[in-house]
Amino acid sequence: MLTQASEPETPAPAPVQPVRAVADIVRRRLAPAPKGGLSFWLVAALITGIGLLLRLVNLAHPKDVIFDEVYYANEAQDLLQRGVEWNPEDNTPQYVVHPPLGKWMIGLGEQLFGYNSFGWRICAVTVGAISILLIVIAAYKLFRSTILAGLAGLLMSLDGMHFVLSRVALLDIFLMFWIVVAFFFLVLDREQRRARWLRLLEDGLEPNRPGARPRLGFPWYRLLSAISLGLACGVKWSGIYYVAIFAVAMVAFDMSARRSAGYKHWVREGILSDGFAWFVATFAIAVVVYINCWWGWFLSDGGYFRHWYAESNGLAHDRWFDPLVNLWHYHHEAYNFHVTLETKHQYQSWPWQWLLLGRPVAFYWEQSGTCGAPSCAAEILLLGTPLLWWSFLPALIALGWLAIARRDGRAWLIMAGALTGIVPWFNEMPEHRTMFYFYCLPSEPFLVLAVVYVLGAILGPARKLRPNSDQRLIGSIIVGAYVVLVAACFAYFYPIYAGVDIPYTSWFARMWLGSRWV
Length: 518
Fold this sequence. Notes:
With 518 residues, the chain is mainly α. The protein is built from 22 helices and five strands. The protein starts with 23 loop residues before the first helix and ends in a 9-residue tail after the last helix. Belongs to the glycosyltransferase 39 family. It comes from Dactylosporangium matsuzakiense.
């Protein structure tokens, strides 16, 4: 018997996985910063634009090489032509003691704009402006405040040290740039990993259940941070200090996230699960990237020490692994040069002087009568904006106190970044090694962040205060006055940052510490 076909059954919808309630304090600790809206990106673009325009004005002045541009601008041209540094006088490879990446970056500008003062300086301007933008974004991720993020970028834009080194073809701005890039990715990694923990908790993860293994996904930002650290070392060896401190920070991030998620044994879990593996991997990745920065030397046949082992042992050809042996020997000799460098220099200084501006560096000096006064002077002086730099030390002290009082990992991260660019150099003082003020440039972005952190504490959190709160008003006045004074100080010293021809009396009036600055 025929029967009417029954209609197919509609499958029941899959049950919606309920979102687990997470305590507000845990959510606050793990939740990422809100995405920056239009106002944030306008502020970021404005601040970066100000920094870029300031650095581009009259960039080609002076026309000739100044200070160590005499080395790096010429070596960059050698790399473009031969792949290695070269002595034109006797047509032999040149012995240099810094890795090649920074000079390749200088050479990029020379390739695009020619071998001239604009060409060998334009890449320094570019990375200087990008570093300002990255610090603005990183500050927003850390502080979750457009105001504080803008302050961080503005203070960097108005810092004389950052300004001067963004306009000359020296290596230090490129070292600082790659450290800032690594820090930027480190901050993004911290936020991403904590957000993934929050999502797992909302999906029902029970942290202390035996056998519970969270799936956090591959940390691409962490990988990019490690690559950037290797590139920093490819500019100058002192980048290794940041490899170490950022590798430790990765372990600390893993432990902190697990603690916020509710793990009882968060120290052990943070180290054994991901932390230690990435600590080792960061060094390994940085080494591989660093070695690849020497690609021009590897591909050349005439680089310094390129065939050292074969020539020293009477071999007709290199063995297959000799390029690495020869590179190791090169580094051994360069290291001996660095640690035994005791040649006196009129602008050398010691680490304890750097935050006090005890001995800035004159990059350029010329006396003339072209400014309309009986005697004129034009100077480019590597000098941090004094009011800003003299606030760094009290800011670090306040930051340390706040880090302890608030138990705030962000404060410790900023403190570590600031000290890493200065403290290791104290170890060189007993050897009387020649050192210069610009060695501490990698610390500058973190010192600025330290000031901004303290300004944020003075300003107070807006969400907890009424709009007419006296604390907020007083804090705003203090912060506003500080920024105005720093800006005025930068404007006052601008002529001796940019080599502007001014009356000699005006130049001398800016030598606040007398002979220490002359």
